[in-house]
Amino acid sequence: MSNIQGKVVVITGASSGLGEATARHLASKGASVFLGARRMARLQTVVADIQRAGGQAAAMQVDVTRRAEVDAFVQAATEKFGRMDVLVNNAGLMALAPIEKTLVDEWDRMVDINIKGVLYGIAAALPVFARQKGGHIINIASVAGHKVSMGGAVYCATKHAVRAISEGIRQEVDGIRTTIISPGAVQSELPLGISDPDTAAHIKAFYRQQAIPADAVARAIAYAIEQPADVDINEILLRPTVQEM
Prior knowledge:
Layout: E1 8-11, H1 17-28, E2 32-37, H2 40-52, E3 56-61, H3 67-81, E4 86-89, H4 104-132, E5 135-140, H5 153-172, E6 176-183, H6 197-210, H7 215-225, E7 235-238
Helix pairs in contact: 1-2, 1-7, 3-4, 4-5
């Protein structure tokens, strides 16, 4: 039997892309999934699809930049399914642009979602995992968390931060597993967060040529979850085969 069967997995940013694909994939393997995002109508569609296929799913609207909402989201998940085995911090924003354009509002938004949103999820999950004496935090970073690319200084900084935070949890918190998932170009709505016209055109063309399906990341997440309790997959870095950077 799969080690995913019967686990409760809580996923942010689950209304599309990586989060949606992960929810569908894990539910198909027998996990109960609790989904969060700002777009409730999209979440309800995903939940309905999973339930029609015989899976267990529920959803709640959440903005990860609001700590009280994240706390309520995690509490609702544990009330619905009785526990929480895995938290997938997936919500993210990729607002790429040359730093000299000083799009400070977008910098703030990326810090709020990509760093503080992850921290709020961790803060909500750790007390639950302490009571249960176990749990698994999976943080979605990026290839951008390993190297800095043109136009990506702030975005890359946020993903470097996700990796640093994850490694800190691994070292400091006993009894839980931590996994960093660092994807390259994956089919999702991430490029839609780019407002700078030149950067947007370049990235959209790059994604059209190279991006792999979101299910590739879902399978990587499943691999990390399904390991025995004494095995912690600390990081998975995956790219399209043709992607150079």
